[in-house]
Amino acid sequence: MAKTILLAHGSGGKLSHDLIENNLVPPFSNPILNKLDDSAIFELSGRLAFTTDSYVVSPIFFPGGDIGRLAVYGTVNDLAMCGATPFYLSISLIIEEGFPMEELKIIVNSIKEAAERAKVKIVTGDTKVVNRGSADKLFINSSGLGLISSGVNISGSNAHPGDKLILSGTIGDHGIAVMSQREGLKFSSSIESDCAPLHELVTEMLEVSQKIHCLRDPTRGGLATILNELAKQSNVGIWIEEDKIPITNPVRAACELLGFDPLYVANEGKLVAVVAPEDTEAVLNKIKQNQFGVNASIFGEVREEPKGKVIMKMTLGASRLVDMLTGELLPRIC
Amino acid sequence: MRFIDEYRNVDLGQKLVSRIHRVCTQPIKLMEFCGGHTTAILKYGIRQLLPQTVEMLSGPGCPVCVTTNADLDKAIALAHLPNVIITTFGDMMKVPGSYSSLQQAKADGADIRIVYSVRDALDITQNNPKKSVIFIGIGFETTAPTLAASILEAEQKEIKNFYVLSLLKLCPPAIKLLLMIALVGLSEVKLDGIVCPGHVSAIIGSYPWEFIPRQYNIACVISGFEPLDILLSLVMLIDQIELEKPKVEIAYRRGVKPEGNRQAQELMARVFEPTTATWRGIGKVPLGGLKLKKEYERFNAESTFSITPPLPREPKACLCGDILRGAKRPPECKLFGESCTPENPIGPCMVSSEGACAAYFHYGVSYG
Predict the structure, then answer these.
(1) Quick one: which H or E segment has residue A193?
(2) Domain of A46: which CATH number?
(3) Nearest CA to B61 among B86, B47, B41, B46?
């Protein structure tokens, strides 16, 4: 067997079939996938949520996870943030010629484990190989299908003045874990990605409250960016308090050192819930009982004004506007 | 967290703020030289805590911002050369030159890599022995010693494909020129005190600032970058001004010694020598920059590679130059927040993380 992925592995010929039948189907095995037809065929009725996301993280292995785990949990979380229970996923691999077979196996196994952990089935997929240099090692696209229970109505446009904001845990862990491995920035730290599936946490939250108005996971662009999205979508002002936002000391230290604002650093296992005030305590307590919500905190509230803006009250008493992320995160130089 | 929380302590902060309100009896104009200070002042909302009599002006202390279009155009021209890898601090990528930017050059196919220190540029050089690797050397006294150390390392390891475009600048000569212009009445800025740069002073010490109180009767305090550092520096400045006894004081004692960092100074002096440099907004500053000494000339990208950058031009109506002198505030610029935003910057002060316009844009609006 080849030690690296060759262009022929994506040609549709013998090598493609070998790769799919020996390396991709067995780990993900389930009756729908195993038929190997052009589409997955299944019954699913009710209100559906459908999402897709592409994963291009670099490096593909990072402390606390890899691109495979991210592809499963990221898509699962997109469904969860609409209050949906995820059922089926597609996994599409775009592999750069020369990619080590060993690494592919590790990532496929990681996808398998993540899917089992999240209780979702991978029912369809695709594999393409592109010329060296046409992709950076491995890209994954993943689409997901989930079911929304009746009575659940979660949307970024549902925030009402008076609602409280809950954050499910510390921010910045994923982004800093990935950045600590980047070429030109390597530093050793104990910081691990928070990459985790959040749909069970969401199910538990929905058991104690029907008044969860918005849910969002602060991935790319970080907490600041999703709060701005919510403020604009709901046409409300979002007021947060700096000292109520949980953040670990290693992440704080790394951000200080690199000149990053943790409000803009990516997370992969956290959520923000906008909840009616009367239900806030119950939802917070439920979140704290879940392993992915131990450090949850109420960190802000929704007001009428200023519409479409996010304001942070700082520890020294002043308040400032929190803008969306513009451009890329860059280190300070002076 | 240790070394962070102490410097953001709320009780101490409030004590310093009330002291400023109590002691300051007259309207005063202070300049924070450093862009890092401008950003911290706005980010922590310090301006909101000060009495209305204290006016804070931002100064030219942002290496990206004071880099001229002519110098940016050189960097962009170098990037388009075949077989060249450009290494640069990330902040430089989006700064518009006369006709293009490094970001645009990269999109057009130039090999440009963001590094976090010049040491990383040296690693890239060693990993690409068949390419010429050019480091875009912007920065002040803070950055110069590490650049000098890398050049010495490249020399010792006989690395033949490493080059530097030295755009390094020295801060005290620039302040001197600013104050001279103000003294002869050619400028609208009359300062009572200066918040002197913390990191630059960690290298050069406090002595190079002594001419400011002596010749210009202006108070000077070297400040750190945490909220309490800045508030303490403001208290010390206001005390000096009220007592009419201007001098150079160090509020940032954990970082700055009066004599500075001798080892870093020696490194700089071994590799570089002062030269006239053009600062955006200030113009030609005698001894306001650093060039490679003769014996290190072979690392000089400008003399090694033949480039013909376009004739530089400045964007119309952009007030970056005035803003860098403290003569105008960012919101006074017609372009600010309208056609010039961090996503579509027209001037460099809107790009850099230490740029006054970017700081005002991100943090400048206060809410009660």
Answers:
(1) none
(2) 3.30.1330.10
(3) B41
Q: Which pLDDT does position A329 carry in this prediction?
A: 59
Going along chain B from its start, the domains and CATH numbers come out as: 27-303+315-359 (3.40.50.11740)
Q: Are A77 and A53 in contact (CB under 8 A)?
A: no
**In B280-327, at which residue ranges do the beta strands (DSSP E only) sit?**
283-292
Same structural domain, A191 and A129: no
In sequence order, what are the beta bridge partners of A307?
A: none
CA distance A264 to chain B (A): 13
Chain B window 299-318: which residues touch A at a Cβ cutoff of 8 Å? none
Nearest to B287, CA basis, from B138, B173, B140, B167: B173
- Cα end-to-end distance, chain A, whole Å: 52
- Distance in angstroms (rounded) separating the CA atoms of residues A146 and A141: 17
Across the beta sheet with A84-96, the strand order is: A47-55, A138-148, A84-96, A121-130
Examine residue A104 and state whether it is found in any structural domain, yes or no: yes
Nearest to A319 among B143, B199, B366 (CB): B366
Instruction: With beta carbons less than 8 A apart as the criterion, state whether A107 and A60 touch.
Output: yes
Does B114 sit within 8 Å of A184, measured CB to CB? yes
Provide the edge-to-edge strand list for the sheet that holds A212-216: A212-216, A272-275, A164-167, A297-303, A237-241, A310-313, A319-321
Q: In chain A, which residue's Cα lies nearest the Cα of B9?
A: A316
C-beta separation of B361 from B341 below 8 A: yes
CB atoms within 10 A of CB B185: 8
Decide: B360 and B57 in contact? Cβ < 8 Å.
Answer: no
Looking at A63-149, which runs of residues are DSSP E strands?
A: 65-66, 84-96, 121-130, 138-148
Partner residue opposite A316 with nearest CB, options B49, B139, B342: B49
Residue A147's beta-bridge partner residues? A48, A85
Spatial separation of the C-alpha atoms in residues B40 and B228, rounded to whole Å: 11
In a domain, A159, yes or no: no
Amino acid A333: pLDDT: 47
Closest-CA distance, A248 to chain B, in angstroms, reads 9
Which among B63, B93, B353 has CB closest to A259?
A: B353
Of B216, B193, B219, B196, give the one whose Cα is nearest residue B206.
B196
d(CA B324, CA B63): 11
**Which structural domain, as residue segments, surrounds residue A141?**
7-148
A168 and A317 in a common domain? yes
Give the pLDDT mean for B98-107: 95
Rg (chain A; Cα; Å): 21
Q: How many residues does chain B have?
A: 368
Q: Which residues pair with A128 in a beta bridge?
A: A94
Asked if residue A108 is part of any domain, the answer here is yes
pLDDT at A296: 97
Q: Give contacts of A318 with chain B, Cβ < 8 Å.
A: 44-46, 48-49, 366
B64 contacts in A (CB within 8 Å)?
A: 333
Q: What are the strands, taking DSSP E only, across chain B?
A: 28-34, 54-61, 84-88, 111-114, 132-139, 162-168, 193-196, 219-222, 248-250, 272-279, 283-292
CB contact B367 to A (< 8 Å): yes
Model confidence pLDDT, tens digit, residues B52-96 = 999 999 999 999 999 999 999 999 999 999 999 999 998 899 899
A51 vs A190, higher pLDDT? A51
Pairing of strands A237-241, A310-313: parallel
Q: Which of B139, B158, B168, B172 is nearest to B272 (CA)?
A: B168
